[in-house]
Task: inverse folding
């Protein structure tokens, strides 16, 4: 497992897909939140009206509320694409055959991919939260007195890690689909289904929507989410990871 | 051969069927230590499928594909540590440099950490890749990618080698290089199974040549014989005539 981890870590460190995704999310997400707040304050026009609908409260509460909505989407799509790449590339680039006839099992290689992706996802979540706080302080989004910054950040951190955890399920689609494209299709469909599940009020029971609901829990008009619903997220991800590792062990070229 | 020294590579009545297509049809062959056993055949003859079954990449429909006496489907790490292979695409991740690819191959082949750097230095020099050591493999020519794939296959000095068309994309100097590589590995005791379209290349290096046609082993060629191409096509023609008559 250690050998597979070293190799997968090397591949992810050198991947342009990983670095591009990291930079886009860490830089753009906080700036987009600021932009939406500015648009909501401006009030005028279609964008202003839309932004106003997304923003609840004022100052840091509004800013971090928006950040919760943003990370629920971007930390699924970004890590989902990276997961699709990590598993699908072995088929699209025909390197899958190179992973046979080795003393390191393919199950270990798949497990190493999940571990490395999870660690990267946790680092990405931490980086986007740190970047958001720095951007918020520089832009002076509001007074910090009386605002539970640490508590709110902790909630967003949990939501972010749950989001990237559920994004790992894309590895199963990329494996069975033997490439990136089916996995990219799955990311789009699951993002849409999550929106629909939230709209019809069953989002808490849909593991692809639950982390987003937790991120914005307590905001006006958002249903509370319970522990069982949240636990479904890691359980679903673990089941998908198990199925993926089993597929890797038994799949033929 | 006793169980203490099981045959490095062996197939027994090996069959692979895809739908209505019989890709490999009852092939028996073995490769002994220090032997270069070549398989020749037209495209679609079943050479690659046979090798894939010996490497555990594809499950046989019937028969056995054995590596050191163990089924390729269930063989453990000790067996695979002895094996090096190159089937179709070389082990070359485009985002990694040549050195990083070699390091990854060494790790996955189970080479002891203390031996990895010296093994990399040995193959960089032996495969004339030193000038590209720090280049990403996506920037390599096809020929150098193939050299990298071969270097990755032998970095752990395997005692069993399975190479499918190893001379693909190589220039004449590269072909000579492959012949020297195979000869030197077999002199060191390695059992080598190699496929090629080019009969004259194999004639200069193989100890045994098996002809495959329509999934079957249809005979052997004497590597020291004359006009191997003529012998090959005569045999293929006879098989086709027999099929037509049946």
Result:
């Amino acid at each position: 497992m250690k050998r597979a981890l070293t190799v997968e870590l090397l591949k992810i460190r050198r991947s342009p897909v990983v670095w591009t995704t990291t930079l886009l999310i860490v830089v753009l997400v906080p700036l987009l939140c600021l932009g939406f707040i500015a648009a909501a304050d401006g009030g005028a026009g279609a964008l202003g009206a839309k932004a106003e609908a997304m923003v609840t409260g004022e100052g840091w509460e509004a800013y971090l509320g928006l950040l919760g909505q943003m990370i629920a989407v971007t930390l699924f799509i970004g890590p989902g694409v990276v997961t699709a790449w990590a598993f699908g590339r072995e088929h699209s680039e025909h390197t899958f055959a190179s992973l046979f006839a080795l003393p390191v099992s393919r199950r270990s290689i798949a497990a190493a991919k999940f571990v490395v992706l999870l660690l990267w996802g946790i680092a990405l979540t931490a980086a986007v939260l740190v970047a958001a706080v720095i951007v918020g302080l520089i832009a002076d989004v509001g007074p910090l007195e009386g605002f539970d910054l640490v508590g709110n950040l902790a909630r967003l951190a949990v939501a972010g890690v749950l989001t990237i955890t559920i994004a790992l399920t894309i590895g199963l689609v990329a494996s069975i689909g033997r490439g990136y494209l089916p996995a990219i299709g799955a990311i789009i469909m699951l993002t849409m289904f999550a929106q629909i599940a939230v709209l019809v009020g069953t989002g808490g029971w849909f593991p692809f929507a639950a982390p987003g609901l937790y991120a914005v829990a307590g905001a006006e008009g958002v249903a509370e989410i319970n522990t069982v619903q949240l636990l479904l997220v890691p359980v679903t991800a673990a089941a998908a990871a198990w199925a993926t590792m089993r597929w890797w062990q038994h799949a033929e070229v | 051969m006793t169980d203490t020294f099981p045959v490095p590579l062996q197939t027994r009545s090996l069959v692979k069927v895809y739908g209505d297509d019989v890709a490999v049809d009852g092939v028996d062959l073995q490769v002994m230590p220090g032997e270069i056993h070549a398989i020749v055949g037209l495209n679609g003859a079943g050479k690659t499928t046979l090798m894939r079954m010996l490497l555990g990449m594809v499950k046989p429909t019937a028969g056995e594909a054995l590596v050191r006496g163990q089924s390729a489907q269930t063989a453990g790490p000790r067996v695979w540590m002895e094996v090096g292979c190159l089937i179709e695409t070389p082990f070359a991740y485009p985002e990694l440099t040549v050195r990083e690819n070699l390091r990854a191959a060494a790790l996955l082949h189970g080479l002891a950490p203390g031996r990895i750097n010296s093994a990399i230095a040995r193959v960089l020099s032996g495969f004339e890749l030193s000038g590209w050591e720090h280049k990403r493999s996506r920037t390599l020519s096809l020929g150098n990618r193939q050299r990298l794939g071969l270097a990755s296959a032998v970095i752990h000095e395997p005692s069993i080698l399975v190479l499918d068309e190893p001379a693909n994309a190589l220039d004449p100097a590269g072909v000579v290089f492959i012949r020297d590589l195979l000869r030197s590995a077999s002199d060191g005791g390695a059992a080598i199974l190699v496929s090629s379209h080019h009969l004259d290349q194999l004639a200069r290096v193989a100890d045994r040549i098996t002809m495959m046609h329509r999934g079957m082993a249809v005979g052997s060629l004497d590597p020291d014989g004359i006009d191997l191409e003529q012998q090959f096509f005569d045999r293929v023609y006879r098989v086709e005539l027999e099929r037509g008559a049946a």
User: Anything to note?
Assistant: Residues 16 and 22 of chain A are 10 Å apart (CA to CA).
